[in-house]
Sequence to fold (106 residues):
Amino acid sequence: MRRFLAAVVTAAALSGALGIASAEPAAAASGHQRAPQCVKVVKYFTKKHKRYVRLTNLCDRRTACYTVVVPARPDKRGRLKKDTTKNVRYGTDRDPRALYVKNRPC
Fold:
């Protein structure tokens, strides 16, 4: 019984290690490269009936590009210079609030 249990545990450990080892080259071979996550949301706010999002670029060596995603409206795209913070206007208070800000390659 102990041999059988040891064989099952060993087989499970090896299959898990092989699964992790094979997943990494598969992701690299697919050609999908992720944009660096430089743009971060500081806060969402409304001022004088206009909606804003305060963004900051955490990358101190490169310009970062972003997209503000708002439901049922065109996406607002832009760029942030290195190591800056900026208030971006994306609509009025009658428009829906932005869902999120997506980093994208420049």
